[in-house]
Design brief:
heterodimer; A: alpha+beta; Alpha-Beta Plaits; 2 domains; B: alpha/beta; 6-stranded mixed beta sheet; 4-stranded antiparallel beta sheet; globular
């Protein structure tokens, strides 16, 4: 009973204290709001960079041409051989006839060009999707080693450059996000420390009348949690509505069609959850650190 | 065993200053003891050691059978629940009423509102502030604020009441009133009282046991009524 009473009073005191020390609480809440807003924006950017990188990597494929004399059975055998490779995600077959029809439909000049040939000059092909972009080179070499393969390629230099550029952008974004979270933690913690500094008398009295350390810490930790949570409300609203509006206005992509924005549903709610968790956690830890300073016995 | 027993206590701060040197003293249950001496003579260190705000560098401090010097940090609160402390600067919470300030001590201990109310009212009655229960500290005089501080210190019915210059900020008449309240607590509730003070007038008038500390050394232990203030103290 005693424990529940102390917990109950801690919650009551924490909420009372947020309103009783309104100006100081507001300073802490505003600090949390501003810094969490910056973190939310950087998380949205980081999430999109990762999304674009993943989508681009998905588009990277190996185009395989079969030898002219390869039969349908050869094609079937080769398809199953390639599919059985551990790094291969999927294989799509396209016959030379399909190529011919597609090209003729795309441009009629191709039709007249094909008429000069007694038989279809094109080759049967596979488009190979890999599980991991790093395995493109290995899979290409393995395919080349198979019989009845005319060529296998994935535009080595261009692909390598794109992948390394996006890798770098992704890494830089992660570092920036981590740095921002660190700065946010420091700022919120320091503001809460100031709030608690002004109440060190209260802590001293609690100690002297025989409160256990846990009973002293509890209301302050809950207060930190409340401040962090209240501070995350505006960033959460701005992130959710802002992103959905921006997504609809831009039709889901930025500058070129290739750079698509992550679909708002679930993505933006994950970010909102992270911001709320981050705010309340930093608030709690900040309060705990600050109150511990005055608990020396 | 005596209620309070200090044996060969030495306290040297990290700055190298020795506040108390080889101090030994015994205090019986229910005694009223003044601790006197010049500023920075070691009075406050002596007082703080009793409620484990400071730890001795050497020696032992036993309060109510517990060696305070060996008490683990996590257990100190149990000792403090048996001790009431009255401060020169009152240390009241400005945004709480008189009732709430006194009740605060019991709330920290996890008592229910039903248990708290009669105890708080009794303590407030003892210090004579029944009419001011709803007032805030800023609406009270210095003497009244000190009474609230005393009520908070005794509300938990402690075995030991420690007073660190409780009349230091008060005029002579108010000081007299406060001393009367503390004396009554000692007589009626049989609470052991240890009081650090500068006030010669009070020490002479009250005729209690007096411990004189000079430069960290206990230079005099005057039994009830045998102390007469002398030059400089």
């Amino acid at each position: 009973m005693k424990v529940f009473r102390i917990i109950g009073r801690s919650f009551r005191d924490a909420f009372k204290s947020v309103f009783r020390n309104f100006s100081l609480s507001m300073a802490s809440i505003l600090c949390a709001t501003i810094t969490l807003l910056v973190v939310a924006v950087s998380l949205v950017i980081a999430g999109n960079v990762e999304d674009v990188t993943k989508n681009l990597e998905k588009e990277l494929t190996i185009v395989v041409y079969l030898e002219k004399n390869a039969t349908t059975e050869d094609a079937e055998f080769l398809q199953s051989s390639i599919e059985s490779m551990s790094d291969v995600e999927s294989v799509t077959y396209k016959s030379k006839e399909e190529w011919k029809n597609e090209m003729s439909e795309y441009d009629s000049s191709y039709s007249s060009l094909f008429e000069n040939y007694s038989e279809n000059p094109l080759l049967d092909s596979f488009v190979v999707y890999v599980k991991n972009v790093d395995s493109l080179d290995k899979v290409t070499n393995n395919i080349k080693a198979l019989d009845k393969i005319e060529s296998a390629s994935y535009g080595k230099d261009a692909v390598t450059t794109i992948v390394s550029v996006f890798d770098l952008v992704e890494k830089v974004t992660i570092v920036v996000v981590i740095a921002l979270i660190f700065v946010t933690a420091c700022l919120i913690t320091n503001t809460i420390k100031l709030t608690i500094y002004s109440r060190r008398n209260e802590i001293e009295i609690m100690r002297l009348v025989g409160s256990s350390n846990t009973a002293i810490k509890m209301p302050f930790v809950i207060e930190g949690f409340v401040i962090g949570l209240l501070g995350s409300i505006i960033p959460v609203i701005v992130t959710i509505y802002g992103y959905i509006i921006a997504y609809n206005r831009l039709n889901g992509h930025v500058i070129v069609d290739l750079i698509t924005l992550a679909s708002p549903y679930y993505f933006v709610f994950y970010i909102a959850l992270i911001i709320m968790a981050l705010g309340s956690l930093i608030g709690m830890v900040g309060s705990l650190m600050a109150v511990r300073k005055y608990l020396k016995i | 065993m005596k209620f309070i027993e200090l044996k060969n206590v030495t306290k040297t701060y990290s700055t190298g200053v020795t506040a108390l040197a080889d101090l030994s003293v015994e205090i019986e249950k229910g005694e009223f003891v003044f601790v006197i001496g010049h500023t920075a003579c070691g009075k406050s260190t002596f007082i703080k050691m009793l409620y484990r705000e400071e730890k001795p560098t050497k020696g032992s401090v036993v309060v109510g059978g517990v060696n305070v010097a060996k008490l683990r940090n996590g257990k100190v609160y149990k000792l403090r629940r048996k001790i009431g402390v009255v401060f020169q600067d009152f240390k009241l919470l400005p945004k709480l009423t008189v009732y709430e300030n006194v009740a605060f001590a019991l709330e920290c201990l996890g008592l229910s509102s039903k248990e708290i109310r009669p105890k708080v009212m009794k303590a407030i009655e003892i210090v004579g502030l029944k009419e001011k229960v709803r007032s805030f500290p800023s609406q009270l005089s210095g003497g009244e604020q000190q009474r609230v501080c005393i009520a908070r210190a005794i509300v938990n019915e402690p075995k030991l009441l420690i007073c660190d210059e409780p009349t230091g900020n008060l005029d002579p008449d108010t000081s007299k009133d406060i001393m009367k309240v503390i004396d009554n607590i000692n007589k009626d509730l049989k609470t052991t009282v240890i009081m650090a003070t500068h006030d010669k007038e009070i020490v002479n008038r009250m005729k209690k046991r007096v411990l004189l500390i000079e430069h960290g050394v206990l230079t005099g232990d005057y039994l009830k009524g045998s102390y007469k203030s002398h030059e400089g103290i």
